[in-house]
Amino acid sequence: MENWDDLRFLLAVSKSGTMSGAARMLNTNVATVSRRIERLSEQLGTNPFQKTRKGWETNPMVQGLIEAAQTFEGNLDKEIHQVSSPTGRSPVRIGAPPIVNSQILFPALIGTEGKMKTIAPEFSDRLVPGGLGDHDIVIQDRLPDTGRLLSRKAGKMNFRVFAPKGYNGDEWISLPEASGYTGPTELGRKVFNTEPVARASTFMQIFELAQQSGLAAVLPETLAQKHENWDPVGTEDDVLSYDLYVLYHETRKGDPVIDATLEWINYAFQKAKALP
């Protein structure tokens, strides 16, 4: 290969799924990304990606090359972090469900300067579980089924139906059916024996909608219990629990930046009392 740097563009498009996303990751423009991918296509004799409605999907013929590039990138990052002076903070990209970011990770930023002296986390919300994408670490409620990813259990999050004090109705709010998470809606149906009257795409939106409407909602215990005007509805058995896992690429094992981030994430779950 004449230009190894082209692999950065190959990997960026694979991670982001779009030319524009790859351009943002690499701090360049779409025209440059397109030109690099076209040059790489000429070298390989095949197009690395196929355009679909969902974005750019990887050509199976180059999957091995992408995995090799990801391994090279991970090993390079690890070696750089191991030899670099620990005087500054290294950026680390963390992807997690919005409710995990807001209720577990963000509160742990306060008063943890000592635990975070070597890392500068960059948070993003992930609504759909999957691979790493353009993140260094992701937190999700299921183990990976593909890819060379390492995982460890971070903790869990419990959900119940909550309603304002004195609520006697049967109208409630849940996630959309298309979210892929049917558990919260099934729990609400069990408690009220009715269908939800409204839906929102995240639990933070559900909570805000419930507050403004005065309706019941399926919510994380960590969120609802922070507000004295909310009471659980149903029996003690009407609880839904999701295990949460931390995922990162196997080449980053032993990377001091990843290790420091994992330690901080563990602290965040301890502080939120969301451990297994």
TrEMBL record:
Record Gene3D superfamilies: Winged helix-like DNA-binding domain superfamily/Winged helix DNA-binding domain
Record flagged with keyword DNA-binding: yes
Superkingdom, natural source: Bacteria
The keyword Ribonucleoprotein belongs to this UniProt entry's keyword annotation: no
Keywords carried by this UniProt record: DNA-binding, Transcription, Transcription regulation
Domain HTH lysR-type: 1-59
UniProt cross-references to InterPro entries, sorted A to Z: LysR_HTH_N, LysR_subst-bd, WH-like_DNA-bd_sf, WH_DNA-bd_sf
GO molecular function, one term: transcription cis-regulatory region binding
Pfam families on file: HTH_1, LysR_substrate
Family: Belongs to the LysR transcriptional regulatory family.
The protein's name: HTH lysR-type domain-containing protein
